Amino acid sequence: MPATGTTRKTFRRRGVVAAAALPLLIGALASCGYGSQAEKGGDKKTGAAADGKKLSASEVRIGYFPNLTHATALVGLQEGLIEKELGGTKIKPQAFNAGPSEIEALNGGSLDIGFIGPSPSINGYVKSKGSNLRIISGSASGGVKLVVNPDRIKTLDDIKGKKIATPQKGNTQDVAFLNWISEQGWTVDPESGKGDVSVVRTDNKVTPDAFKQGSIDGAWVPEPTASKLVSDGGSVLLDETTLWPDKKFVITNVIVSQKFLKEHPDVVEAVLAGTVKTNEWINANPDKAKASANAKLAAEGGKPLDAKIIDPAWPSIAITDDPLASTLKTQADWAVKAGLIEEPDLAGIYDLKLLNKVLKAAGKPEVSDAGLGAK
Hints:
Mean pLDDT: 88
Shape: globular
Number of strands: 11
Low-confidence stretches: 1-43
Helix content: 40-55%
Number of helices: 15
């Protein structure tokens, strides 16, 4: 079980422990003193437990990836900002390395709420014929780059004929890369990954070693994998944000089991109150939040990210409550175009009522479901 805010009795005690341990973990980042600002700004509860009443579930099981694009989960758990909104309801966190396994946990009833990318969200919704999950919030935008070996690839045209890694067949980055390939006029078989470009589906944990060994020429990957490749001599050839209007696209959603949403809306609202506060704190305190996320990654993997990796990776990710629903529809269209899925019916994939309730209470603008909301 990874160490989280649920294993500590109070936020104040955790802040002392983290502040003492952080210099050993991440050197200069410790000077940020993360945690103190969260404590000062998080005294007033705004979620469903604000009135002091016990919520309807004794625990909530929350899934996430140990990726910087899941910063809301990393920081929210590390700083206790989500836990604080839940009153006596305990958080049971679980880290995943791939979207399909998280969707399987949600489908199987061993997970209630999850941070996950748009493609697994779409696939999970479509496969259950709209009966299993809902997207209830946004979390992050951006943080995806095409990194290449500069000795082998100097221009975008040089990608043709090369071996480029993506994390998994049909995952968010895989779909985006296949679409980009198509827009160049090149063809690739979506199942095998073979064609004018060799798309090599490789776990993000393995990709840096494959890059160093020369078995791949580059990778279309999220942070921090992209910056790891740069630290190993790679060069950023393309930042995916440049391909999107307003340079925004959803990279991480918050999803919930429809069963849990129906039975425990008060708990879901409290979690969303925590994520909104977390996102606000991250955006107000980027250096402290970076240190907090790194401390959580260290707890997950045994060591923090080196400054040469996290420093360039962190600012490329935009943290947001907005699910950027129109961009999810675009990504679904890309998956259809690539031949990975049939035309999906996404009507009802969003339920943003509780998020907009929390945002309104916090004096923030409501967000749109782009016409794909639950009735």
